[in-house]
Amino acid sequence: MALDDEKQCVAVIGAGSFGTAVAWMLRGAGHDVRMWCYEKSDADYINATHRNPLFLSNLRLDGVVASNQIEETVMGCDSVIIITPSFAVRSSAEALAQCLPDDTPVAVLSKGLDSKSGSTLYEAATSILGNEDRMCVLAGPNHAEEIAEGSYAGAVVASRNPQTARYFQHLLSRDTFRLYTSNDPVGVGLCAASKNVIAIACGIARGMGQGDNTISLLMTRGLAEMTRLVTACGGNAATCLGLAGVGDLNTTCNSPHSRNGSYGEAFAREGISVKDYEERRGMVVEGAHAIDSLLDLGARRGVELPIMQAVKDLIDGNIKLSDIPEYLMTRTLKSE
């Protein structure tokens, strides 16, 4: 693996807002960048206009070569970054397994859980691609809109192999984007998935007219749920206090850019379904898709997740908004 300032050829698998921002950063640093798009028309548009037709269209993608063929995208690349919606990570990894050398470094930047296995996206991709030493996961408070504006941000990149973590740390770090390494990919992946559900809860609270005290309560007790789940699955509790945990939780629960928080508000005010909201926004509400897997994982590990359960019961129509105070606030009193 090359490090430091050596020019790399990087394949970015996914052309959403974060994929576009990452491709733009990499190209700005002088790397050769290939971008895989689901739709051929999007790839053709990027190649012709050097802009993404759907996401962050203000960014110039000069020099980025787009394709809707994964094999063509990754051919000859030094490393691969998977940054699709969570539901597409498995199919992307399966396609990559057919054409990617088994020593090519791979980073998973998608946030969520694999619905088929119930595992983190890092674990699902690793099980398909093999060679865990070349795999890593990246997470943190990274709204693509702000990265594209040059706002300062940070993230953590986690791998079982320190060399892989350092490779992606050097590859992606910029003057405005600082990366830290970790050896806890499972903890980072679980934080990235579960914080989205807590953000939906905070959005629902705001939509109900609740204030800062309620949001702080949900965030803090949500962090407790995240930490219990991470440690039960063999992760490090300290991960939950870092950029993938508290950092991303704070941003996702409080930012107007948060699609999960915004969905929670829209649900409380309109009762809109996840499907209808995703069609309206053209983006995936990752937290809603991760809830079932997170709750199943918690049940298997004997971890209680009351806030996440409340979000599921609300959006499934099993309880009403008016039931929430009794649902959460009258539970058996416990120590913190």
Q: What would your notes on this structure say?
A:
With 336 residues, this protein is α/β, with parallel strands linked by helices. It is 50% helix and 11% strand. The protein has helices spanning 17-28, 40-49, 70-74, 89-97, 121-129, 144-148, 162-172, 185-207, 212-232, 243-254, 259-270, 274-281, 286-301, 306-315, 324-329; strands at 9-13, 32-36, 65-67, 79-82, 106-108, 135-139, 153-158, 177-182. It is globular.
Summary of the model, kept short:
This protein has helices at about 15-30, 40-50, 70-75, 90-95, 120-130, 145-150, 160-170, 185-205, 210-230, 245-255, 260-270, 275-280, 285-300, 305-315, 325-330; strands at about 10-15, 30-35, 65, 80, 105-110, 135-140, 155-160, 175-180. It is α/β, with parallel strands linked by helices. The longest helix is centred in the middle third of the chain and has 23 residues, at about 185-205.
Q: What is the C-alpha radius of gyration, as a whole number of Å?
A: 19 Å
Proportion in β-strands: 5-15%
The number of helical runs is: 15
Helix content: 40-55%
**Largest sheet properties:** 8 strands, mixed
* Beta strand count: 8
State the order of secondary-structure elements, H for helix, E for strand.
Answer: EHEHEHEHEHEHEHEHHHHHHHH
Q: Return residue spans where pLDDT drops below 50 for at least 5 consecutive residues.
A: none
Mean pLDDT: 94
Strands of the widest sheet, in order across it, are 3-2-1-4-5-6-7-8
Cα shape: globular
Class by SSE composition? alpha/beta
Distance between the termini: 45 Å
